[in-house]
Write a structure and sequence with these properties.
The chain is 76% helix and 0% strand. It has 13 helices and no strands. It is globular. The N terminus and C terminus are likely disordered.
């Protein structure tokens, strides 16, 4: 009997503590209102003895705006860093596949994991520096948009202000696109050679300039193919969802629940499909860019000889008419 009473006392005590904790939490997350505090937590209760609600004089903190700006800069930097980190990991895995001569024996079992470990160990500073550059350009563009919002009443009547605003927007948009292009190719060269960002940016830019026509044609063909792939997938999913939710087929009338506004789920599914397809096709885009840079460097560094064989696949060598010379018996004995 004593044990039962002790157990009941312990249970009551635990319930009281949970009740007090919930009240304290509600008071903490809500604004301090004295009337609400008095009704919810009286002075004689345990909650009233451990908590208080008092009026404090509001202060005008002039530096709060700078704190918000600092948090905004950090948020953009983190977003850019995460995106660049994924590009670096993908570039490392694709480059590792290309620069493996015997792909049947020497390829690693987990290429993504190996590229991830190399990126975390050696290239975090490169990613931080590169993402910071993109972050600064994005912040400048946001400041220009904010200035445009403030100067709209003047730009309606002053064509000079409107022209300067349009020029600034265009210039910094082009600058951001150019820096993303440079950083993307620099990450590929860093994944291949392990060099610093500035040197990798220079090597990648010069390599592309020496093969500008090839780069232009491949970029446009890749963009067209990826666009057609997105269009087919998103259009197909949108058509199927319209047929399903709109009950355009007699076989679907008993299997699909009644939806009065069937266009809403169709639109949501289409938008979600577009974003998912874009993320998946970005992997293919990164693969094309990485393999193209590796191919260009392979053509410049190697000539197909025994000492400098081509690393490109056999099918690509057949298309380009390039061959690797095989080792003779004397060379094999000498080595």
């Amino acid at each position: 009997m004593t044990k039962v009473v002790e157990f009941e006392n312990i249970a009551v005590f635990v319930c009281q503590q949970i009740h007090i904790f919930l009240i304290d939490f509600l008071i903490f997350v809500s604004r301090c209102n004295q009337n609400s505090f008095t009704k919810t937590c009286g002075e004689d209760s345990d909650c009233g003895l451990t908590n208080a609600c008092q009026f404090a004089l509001n202060q005008n903190l002039s530096h709060v705006g700078w704190y918000h700006l600092y948090n905004f800069l950090g948020l953009l930097w983190i977003i850019c860093f995460i995106s660049d980190f994924g590009d670096m990991v993908l570039a490392g895995s694709f480059a590792g596949w290309y620069w493996t001569l015997d792909r049947k024996k020497d390829l690693p079992i987990f290429p993504i994991s190996n590229s991830l470990s190399r990126t975390v160990r050696y290239h975090m500073g490169t990613l931080a520096f590169g993402s910071l550059i993109i972050d600064i350009t994005k912040v400048i563009r946001c400041l220009i948009e904010y200035a445009d919002y403030k100067l709209k009443k003047y730009s309606k009547y002053n064509p000079l202000v409107k022209a300067l605003d349009c020029c600034c927007k265009c210039c910094f948009w082009c600058l951001e696109k150019f820096m993303k292009f440079i950083n993307r190719n620099a990450y590929i060269m860093t994944a291949v050679h392990g060099k610093k960002l500035i040197k990798s940016s220079r090597d990648a830019f010069l390599l592309l300039m020496r093969n500008a026509l090839r780069a232009f044609v491949l970029d446009k063909v890749t963009d067209f193919l990826l666009f057609m792939g997105k269009l087919v997938i998103v259009g197909g999913v949108a058509l199927i969802s319209f047929l399903v939710f709109g009950k355009q087929h007699a076989a679907l009338e008993d299997k699909v629940p009644l939806v009065h506004f069937y266009l809403l789920p169709v639109i949501l599914i289409t938008v979600g499909t577009y974003f998912i397809t874009t993320r998946f096709f970005s992997v293919y885009n990164m693969a094309v860019d990485t393999l193209f840079l590796c191919f260009l460097e392979d053509c410049e560094r190697n000539d197909g000889s025994v000492d400098k064989p081509y690393y490109m696949p056999k099918e690509l060598r057949g298309i380009l008419g390039k061959k690797n010379k095989l080792k003779t018996s004397n060379q094999a004995i000498g080595t």
